[in-house]
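Entry type: protein chain
Record version: 2
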Amino acid sequence: MTTIDLSEYDIPGRGRGILDVFRWRYLLRLLVRKGTATRYRNSVLGWTWSYVKPGIQYLVYFLVMGIILGMGGRTENFPLYLFAGIVIVNFFNEGFGNATNAIVDNRSLVQKIYLPRELFPIAAVIVGFIHFLPQVVILLVVCLFFGWVPSFAGIGAALLGILIVASMALGLGLFFAGINVRYRDAQNFVEVIRMVSTWASPVLYTWTLVAEHVRGWALHLYMVNPLTVAVELFHYAFWESTVSDAGHVGFPARFDLYLVASLVICAVTLVVGQFVFRRFERTFAQDL
């Protein structure tokens, strides 16, 4: 009886998860190109919306928080403080939202051919990052207007903040993308998380205001939120060097521990998100 060696063949419809990204780089590039090309198709303003929407959001928040509620008088260079926080949170919201809908939006490909399904959420987060870059360019221009001086520490803090947000967006995106195929209610949970994200991190206010009213475990829970850590890293990178000693806020006490905890949370979120995604992946074609 002849024995056939099947060791070099893959199990149909199953891959190595996120690790397949390195093997299927060409397909990832195609998905990213498709996502950026079709985002503003048949739109008059096109990529200008990448500037218009965050600009309107910023003006509304500045009017309410900066002028009406007086944060502009209590926080030095509040326009820059606010903009730095909005930019990084917008990256999370867009990447997370895109990744959640990635499988449903690409149902025709998922149903017809096999390719690692993780490519869709990952490409969605990358597309969110691409649309995040124009906002960073505007942030840099505003920073220079306020007398910002770049530093290696500040640039490193910004890159670390981006890594934290991208990891969190991908982990949660994988988790909800898998569930969303079978249970479309997941999309509503995602919208709630995106709505709360701006208020659950020190974007519209400083962390010192939270510390004045919250104590103990609740304060620690707030501080280990990866979005809180990422926003504070962006404030350190782009805002801290523009204020005087009187307006200096600085990192919270034990921020190094909060940073490590947020990185652990991001890693756990990625692992759990990948596990849940692969469990639901088996029935994607039927559920779609």
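Comment: The CA atoms of residues 8 and 15 lie 13 Å apart.
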